[in-house]
Design goal:
The structure holds 2 protein chains of 2 kinds. Chain A is built from no helices and 11 strands. Chain A is mainly β. In chain A, a hairpin with a 6-residue loop joins strand 7 and strand 8. Chain A is globular. By secondary structure, chain B is an all-beta fold. Chain B has strands at residues 4-5, 10-14, 19-25, 32-38, 45-51, 56-58, 62-67, 72-77, 86-94, 98-101, 105-110. In chain B, strands 2, 4, 5, 9, 10 and 11 form a 6-stranded mixed β-sheet that branches. In chain B, strands 1-3-8-7-6 form a 5-stranded antiparallel β-sheet, with no helix packed on it. The chains are: A mainly beta, B mainly beta. Chain A binds chain B through residues 4, 6, 31, 33, 35, 40-45, 48, 55-56, 91, 95, 98, 103-112, and chain B through 4, 31-32, 34, 36, 42-46, 49, 89, 93, 95-104.
């Protein structure tokens, strides 16, 4: 069972360009979460998605950032008109849907995409 | 607001000794806790978890202790090895998906 896949692993963009980060969850997982991590800091929640639905985007900036998880294909985190402050590691995690005996499921993380904005 | 903090940013331990990493959380509604290990350039890796109805859980060489009274969590690593060198995060969860991560503790294993 392959783990959470993210690509690209490293992404360099110039200010004003668009960054597109992809995440394929673990097999059988229908819940995807995106986090941002600045150097020497913990992970900060950005957005929680299920297939074709955004459940919670309270941690995502209102402007320039968007996320989707289509019926087919990976989840995409899109950052438009990137600025230097967007430079960070972006991690995706996935979890299975809750079951009758477990309403809270462990999130498993991908290797991350390291975005550098020049 | 909610916070999860760690008492020591860096912990240096002699190889073979036991390591203890501490974590405090602020939300008394947190009912699920996870320790993750993050090696340089990699994503967080699940180590061990504990639910609020327990106060201790053991894995292979690792033990997590939970003290809900003082909202404190610890990770004990027995016979620390060089491969244990990493940053360790605790996460406190309330509800189904709200993970609040601490800043992290860097564990350095000295040969």
């Amino acid at each position: 069972n392959a783990g959470v896949m993210q690509n690209p692993r490293h992404l360099v963009r110039r200010r004003g360009q668009e960054a597109r980060l992809r995440c394929s969850p673990m097999k059988g997982h229908s819940h995807v979460y995106w986090y941002r991590q600045l150097p020497e800091e913990g992970l900060k929640f950005m957005v929680y998605l299920q297939k074709e639905n955004i459940i919670d985007e309270s941690g995502m900036p209102k402007e320039r950032f968007s996320a989707e998880f289509p019926k087919e294909g990976p989840s995409i985190l899109r950052i438009q008109q990137v600025v230097r402050g967007d430079s960070a590691a972006y991690f995706c995690a996935s979890s299975p849907p809750p079951t009758l005996w477990s309403y809270t499921d462990t999130q498993y993380f991908g290797p991350g995409t390291r975005l550098t904005v020049l | 607001g909610e916070s999860v903090g760690l008492h020591l940013p860096t912990l240096s331990v002699q190889e073979g000794d036991n390591s203890i990493i501490n974590c405090a959380y602020s939300n008394s509604a947190s009912d699920y806790f996870i320790w993750y290990k993050q090696e340089s350039g990699k994503g967080p890796q699940f180590i061990i978890d504990i639910r609020s109805n327990m106060d201790k859980r053991q894995g292979q060489r690792v033990t997590v202790l939970l003290n809900k009274t003082v909202k404190h969590l610890s990770l004990q690593i027995a016979a620390t090895q060089p491969g244990d060198s990493a940053v360790y995060f605790c996460a406190a969860i309330s509800g189904t998906y709200k993970y609040i991560f601490g800043t992290g503790t860097r564990l350095k294993v000295l040969a």
